[in-house]
Design goal:
The protein is mostly helical. It contains nine helices and five strands. Helix 1 packs across helix 5 and helix 2 crosses helix 6.
């Protein structure tokens, strides 16, 4: 956990990555999103601003990017895979701050991506992978790290917090029926419970 916190701290950068390209809190927000939502990188890359509900504090996951070709495809929804990822009220504050920063500093973003490349296209998998490796190395980690390892830490944190299997399952809710129930507010008690789980994860990262 101290290593992850140091990586997140180092990901906050106000420096220019390349001439004229603003970095800011890009990777800080990307890594927080990945950890709190336990996202696959193929799900993170095509996220659009409209995919997040500030009312329910959740992402609607309906597409993925092939990390080999960088081509987006619609995600098949099944009762097992899920398409709602509850992030918590604390994350929503982080999200809104990032949207403001994104709108001010990323002028080329025709797809309205949450984490666009500097030219407004889908971010390359290898760029994200290389950046995370550099951050871990800068934080003093000498071992091998992959994006899959990084994502797995989300599940590790939930076990550390003693969350039961039911709570962990809040990371994926699948069927169209369940989506409609949440949107209508009929399962609002569960929505509140599931968002509290993510708030606990975020507090563990930030505090």
């Amino acid at each position: 956990l101290p290593l992850i916190k140091e990586v997140l701290h180092l990901s906050k950068s106000q420096e220019l990555n390349t001439p004229g390209f603003y970095v800011g809190n890009y990777y800080y927000n990307l890594l927080n999103t990945m950890l709190i939502g336990n996202f696959r990188v193929s799900e993170i890359i095509p996220l659009e601003k409209k995919d997040y509900s500030t009312r329910m504090n959740c992402f609607i996951i309906n597409k993925v990017v092939d990390i080999q070709t960088n081509i987006m495809k619609e995600k098949t929804k099944t009762d097992e895979s899920g398409n709602l990822v509850f992030m918590g009220k604390d994350y929503t504050k982080l999200y809104l701050e990032w949207i403001e920063e994104l709108n001010c500093n990323f002028k080329v973003n025709p797809k309205n991506l949450l984490f666009p490349s500097k030219v407004g296209t889908y971010k390359q998998y290898r760029v994200i992978d290389r950046t995370i490796k550099k951050l871990f190395k800068k934080a003093g980690f000498q071992g091998r790290i992959t994006l899959h390892d990084f994502r797995s830490f989300g599940a590790v944190m939930r076990r550390y917090l003693g969350l039961d299997k039911t709570s962990q399952e809040h990371l994926r809710h699948a069927s169209k029926h369940m989506t409609k129930l949440y949107e209508r507010g009929k399962e609002w008690g569960d929505v509140e419970k599931l968002n509290i789980v993510s708030d606990k994860v975020q507090k563990l990262l930030i505090n």
